[in-house]
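Not sure how to ask, but would you mind making up any protein sequence you like and the C-alpha cells describing how it folds?
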Amino acid sequence: MNLIVGATGMVGGEICKLLAEQGQPVRALVRNTSNPESVARLTRLGAEIVKGDIKDRVSLDNACHGVTAVISTASSTRTPREGDTLASVDQQGQLNVIDAAKEAGVQHFVFVSFPPIDLEFPLQTAKRAAEERLKQSGMTYTILQPTCFMEVWLSPHLGFDVTNSTARIYGKGENKTSWISFQDVAKFAVASLDAPAAKNTVIQLGGPEALSPLEVVQLAQQLTGKQFDVEHVPEEVLRAQFDAATDPMQKSFAGLMLFHAAGSPINMTEPLRIFPVQTLKTVGEHLQAATAMGTAAH
C-alpha cells in the first residue's frame, strides 16, 4: 500500500492519479477540512481515503498501518487551513509523518523538498530538518529537490500572465532556471518507488532546458505574436523585503523569490539515467497551454 501525504495538493493529487493508472494501491491522507471536490476526485480514482492530519500524530499511526511506501508532498505554503504554519506543518508535521512511518515499518519514504538555498528562512529550515530526520530514520529514503515549478512561477499569480501579455521579472531576469512541471515531479516521485538507484539518495530535479526569465518572455512573445509589458522587481528590493520580513511565511516567500532571481540550472543527465521518465514538459508547451486556455476563456 502506498500512502500519499498531501494527496489533495497539486503534486500529491497527480501522484495519486499516476499510481491509480498503473493499478497500484493508493491510500490518500485527507483532512476533515479538505476540499470535498478534491476528495471526490481521489475517490473516483479508486484511492482509499483515510482521515488524518500531519499535526496529529495519532491519526498518522492509523494512516500508516499496513503501508509499505509513503510519498509526502504536504506543505502549508499553498492552501493553509486554520492552525497551519510552517512550523506546525512543514517542520513538525513532516517529522510526525516520518516518525509514524518508521514505527509502522514502512520500507520506503519519498519526500518532495527543494534544492538548498544559501539563505536562512523558515521553510528551508523545515525542509532540511525533515530531510535530516528521514536520513537518520533507517528507512529507505528518496529525497527529491525540484527547482521552480513552471505552473507556479510562470503563472498570473506571480505576475507572468500570457493572456494579458504581462510579465513580472524578479531581479535582472538573466539567470537560467531549469523550470519543471509539477506533473513531471509526480512522475519522478512515482518512479522512485521502483528505481533501485533512487534508494537512499538526494536528487535535484529540473526540466529539459534551462532558460532565463527574459528568454521565457521572448518565447512567449514568439508564441503569441504579442509584445509583453515587462515589469522588473530589482534584486535590492527583494533583498530589502527579505531582511524586513518578520512573518515566517513572508520571510520564506521572499527567500524563494531571491532563489528564483539567482537562477537554478539543473543537469538532468543523471536523474534521467536513474528514472524511466522519457519526456519532460517544456516551457514552450506550458506557454502554449496557457495561451490556449486564455483564448478559450475569451
Notes: The chain has twelve helices and ten strands. The first strand starts at residue 2 and ends at 5.
